[in-house]
Amino acid sequence: MDHHSGRRFAVPHKKLSLDIKVMVTQIGSMGTILHAKKEEGVSIHPTFAVSVIFGKRDEPMLMACARQLIEHISNSGSSKPLVLSLGLKDHSLETLKGVASALIENRLW
Amino acid sequence: MASGELKGHFDVAVAKDLSGKESTSAVSTGDGDGIQITCFTEDLNDVTFHFQIIRLEKQIYAWIGCNSAKLGHLYAAAPTRPNNAVSVASILGGASDNTGSSIARRIVLKTGLNVILACNIPKNSPMLEADAERKLMEKLKELGYTRSRSQGSVLSNS
């Protein structure tokens, strides 16, 4: 499966809270865009807010993929929000699992 | 500003370091559709603008960074039938600040494609917006993503 991701790099001399942006596309457009962020809270276990901001809102696997990624970002010690766009031909479990593991493997956060 | 262009073929393309160099990379997928990513930086009047343009087959994604690398507000814009109109929606970022929505609209008018624009220009800065838009439009023209007037209405069905 071909995929590519676009990222932001931190501007080195400033401390900024940046975003992480990932784009996965097979269909010639960005597809569905999701936003995920870690919520402020005092409990030990962080909670996350994941939502579709553009595109298909009835595909639970897309939300699951974003949720998995934001948790991984959080476990790597980062509180950055994630904007993820998934333009995929199919939304099956295997595809999304493959996408998530490919992104985690190639991560830059 | 540009010190050279990089062209490469990758399966995984990573956005380039925003260090003042211009770079364009092309990703080709198996069936011949290419994806082109262009990144460049401009300094105008003590403000540094970073640009990233990703050309997908049916869509353009553009990011304008003003002094920082934040994603900023996200807008989706598309040509709307039947009246050659353009619709713009804010999909991330506050509703009372629509810095960038007019830029998104004009990119659609110039290119005829769906556009996703991310823009972190501070609000109430029309001069910054205008400067950024001008630079972006120049680059889109240079890359050949815009339609010329001789091709008729941008939003025709051809």
TrEMBL record, chain A:
GO terms for cellular component: proteasome complex. It comes from the Eukaryota. Pfam families: PAC3. Keywords: Proteasome. GO terms for biological process: proteasome assembly. This is Proteasome assembly chaperone 3 isoform X2.
From TrEMBL, chain B:
InterPro entries: PAC4. One of its GO terms (biological process) is proteasome assembly. The gene is LOC104610569. Coiled coil: none annotated. Keywords: Proteasome. The keyword Transport does not apply. PANTHER family: PROTEASOME ASSEMBLY CHAPERONE 4 (PTHR33559:SF1). GO terms for cellular component: proteasome complex. It comes from the Eukaryota. This is Proteasome assembly chaperone 4 isoform X1.
